[in-house]
Amino acid sequence: MMRRITGWFNQHPRATLRALLAGPLGWISIVYLGSLFILLMHAFWSKDSFTGKVEPFNWTLDAFAQILSNPVYFTIAARTIGIAALVTITAAAIALPVAYYMARIASPRKRALLLVAVTMPLWASYLVKIYAWRTILQTNGLLGWAISPFGLEGPGLTEIANSWLVLTYLWLPYMILPVYAGLERIPNSLLEASADLGGRGWITFRRVIFPQLIPALAAGSIFTFSLSIGDYIVPDLVSDAKFIGNVIYDNSALGSFPVAAAFSFVPILVMIGYLLVARRLGAFESL
Amino acid sequence: MVESPLVRAALRIFTGAVMVFIYLPLVILAVYAFNASPLGGWPPSGFTLDWFGEAAGSPAIRDALTNSLIVATISTVLALILGTLAALAMQRHNFFGKNAISFLFVLPIALPGVVTGISLQSSFKLFGIDLGLHTIVIAHATFCVVVAYNNVVARLRRLPRSPEEASADLGADSWMTFRRITLPGMRTALLSGGLLAFALSFDEVIVTLFAAGPGARTLPVWVYSELQRSYQLPVVNVVALLLVLVSVVPVWIAQRIGGGEITRGGR
Q: Any residues with CB less than 8 A from the CB of A101 and at least 6 apart, and which?
């Protein structure tokens, strides 16, 4: 029986392909794309003003009107995108020297060690890392203790700068790894040529190395930006300034589901735009 | 390019400082798990193992741990099956629309987790599916497919085709070739992909909060609700340490057997 089946598949490679793809493609299209589509429809559905329940296929633009009429939503969107951009820039500024040291200065042994050291924390529980920062940042935490001799106080858990710090901490490895890989790809001869032509260290970096790193930086920034823009746990646990994700999460549970759905358009559209720009910069070849 | 000694020293010091920055919070966390004082201030006051006993005795933590293990196991199996099928199709066949499909498989990690979470929740609600462990499994399997797929594809790309062709020339049908040649070739990739998917699922909270009903808590969801309720609980420190170990150890093993193919993607 098995022989007959496989024999038939042998003669029909198209059928083999279809059989292989049916499961995974079906899952992703139905579960994921289907859900995305249903979410987008929710944004255009009304809700019962009394019970708060969504009324499917009752089309309205109420949710969008509610968002556009209240400037708070605009502030939150701008704040989230701003912090995500700041996190991305900070991560790049930290990643460049670290990746440079790893790729060009460290001994091979040290380089391997550093690679593991940078990769490992990516997997150490996300929530736990945020929790660790909470213990450090709270008023009587490690930071407050360390700066108390100077008459300063710990920042507490309300500052928006905390979100910037913790998000940078969380996503930094995503930036270091592609930048490191990008630096590894630059041939030594190119740098020697620059030096022979009189390019001093800084000039070589700015004119030769940096332009070649742009795809790698763009690739890393996809992660730092996308992960920051969709985060709602960090702003909830270390500060009291809400992000886009908080509005979506809060509204999905208690408030208005159509508003949550409509506000989801913001991260989706921003990310699609970002991915298009990143692709032009060659990010997808560096992933 | 030859960097001046000054630049080299500065880069070394900077890198060292960044490594301290990366690991300091994890060290602090481990210290707190053994802190005698139930209040979370710094410095810790004395050493105790009491919180470990208390955590082990807590039914809420045990239930959450069981849930996490069930969810991670089923999602990993599903992700491995779907990811391997997809990898075989993409790596061994050429067809129209291939690029679009490979983009599709990466989409669940390219878009922010909050979008994935609320999307799934909206369709569960629309179709009247009660939230519970099964909905968490569906959510986790969806983004774990990518991890399995990436690992298997990377391996298939490196596996030479000639043994498969030889097998076919010697009269083996495609099933036999797969079972005797291709599958053994990608065994370690399946193992490391599976471990990574397990770690990812065990640790996930952003999507999970949308897919978890009130009764079905995974360990990270339990930690999150504890953090929202109180300032700091000594038992949470112990669970936090456990979470770090359970997510890091499989990855460490995967890295040893996978030989640097580890790709994580978002979240």
A: A114, B11, B12, B14, B15
pLDDT at position B45 is 79
Q: Give all domains of chain A, ordered by start, each with its CATH number.
A: 18-59 (no CATH), 71-286 (1.10.3720.10)
User: With 50 as the cut, is the pLDDT of residue B247 above it?
Assistant: yes
- Where do the domains of chain B lie? 59-258
What does the pLDDT look like over A171-202, one tens digit per residue? 999 999 999 999 988 888 888 888 788 777 78
* Rounded CA separation B156/A139 (Å): 52
Report the alpha-carbon distance of residue A165 to residue A143 in Å, rounded.
13
* pLDDT above 50: residue B260: no
Give the A window 53-112 contacts with B, CB below 8 Å: 54, 56, 94, 97-98, 100-102, 104-106
The CATH number of the domain covering residues in B59-258? 1.10.3720.10
Mean pLDDT, residues A65-73 = 93
From the list B36, B236, B18, the residue with the least C-alpha distance to A135 is B236
Q: Do B40 and A140 touch (CB under 8 A)?
A: yes
What pLDDT, on the 0 to 100 scale, is given for residue A1?
Answer: 66
**Residue A101 above 90 pLDDT?**
yes
End-to-end CA, chain B: 36
Judged by CB atoms closer than 8 Å, whether chains meet at A97 and B15 is answered as yes
Instruction: Tell me which chain A residue has its CA closest to the CA of residue B15.
Output: A98
* Whether A195 and B209 lie within 8 Å, measured CB to CB: no
Distance CA A91, CA A100 (A): 14
Q: What is the 3-state secondary structure (H, E, C) of B123-186?
A: HHHHCCCCCCHHHHHHHHHHHHHHHHHHHHHHHHHHCCCHHHHHHHHCCCCHHHHHHHHHHHHC
Which helix (H) or strand (E) segment holds residue A47: the answer is strand A45-47
- What b-and-e string marks burial along A72-87, b requiring 16 or more CB atoms within 10 Å of the CB? ebeebbebbbebbebb
Q: Which residue in chain A has the smallest CA separation from B12?
A: A101
Q: Do A201 and B1 touch (CB under 8 A)?
A: yes
- Beta carbons of A87 and A224 less than 8 angstroms apart: yes
The residue ranking higher by pLDDT, B238 or A71, is A71
Pick A249's closest partner by Cβ from B12, B114, B231. B114
DSSP string, B57-115: H-HHHHHHHHHHHHHHHHHHHHHHHHHHHHHHHHHH---TTHHHHHHHHHHHHHS-HHH
pTM for the full predicted model: 0.89
Instruction: Categorize the per-residue pLDDT at A129 as very low, low, confident or very high, splitting at 50, 70 and 90.
Output: very high
Asked if residue A259 has pLDDT above 90, the reply is yes
